[in-house]
Amino acid sequence: MNLHIIALFKFNENYLMDAVELFQKLVKETRKEEGCLQYDLIEDKDNKGTFFLIELWESVEHHNRHNGQDHLLDFRKDASKIMESSAEVYKGFKIY
């Protein structure tokens, strides 16, 4: 069963270029992973510094493997230094 994820990130406006650079590396590498069906970065149109990752994984197992990838671990380490708050992550399965 496919796993849908929406992750919300809020970055300090002084670090927007840094945040985009970190996301670009993350998205590029993640899209290469087995089981990654969608991995898109969206910037909120009304709130500067607020980003969403829209993810679709073939299975929970594929996403679990993603969680151990170096590019994700590096992103988490580097992004945590410039984020306003912790990321909010929502996971679920399509019901209709």
Task: Provide the descriptors you would attach to this structure in a database record.
96 residues; alpha+beta; 3 helices; 4 strands
Structural account:
There is one protein chain. This protein is an alpha+beta fold and 96 residues long. It has helices at 16-30, 60-66, 70-80; strands at 3-10, 36-43, 50-57, 88-92. A 4-stranded antiparallel beta sheet has the order 2-3-1-4. The radius of gyration is 13 Å and the shape is globular. The protein starts with a strand and ends with a strand.
Q: What would the average pLDDT be, to the nearest integer?
A: 97
Distance between the termini: 13 Å
Strand content: 25-35%
Strand order of the largest sheet: 2-3-1-4
Outline the biggest β-sheet.
4 strands, antiparallel
Query: Which segments are poorly predicted (pLDDT under 50) over 5 or more consecutive residues?
Result: none
DSSP summary, beta strand count = 4
Give the overall shape: globular
Percent of residues in helical segments? 25-40%
Number of helices: 3
- Structural class by helix and strand composition: alpha+beta
C-alpha Rg, in Å? 13 Å
Helices and strands, in order, run as EHEEHHE
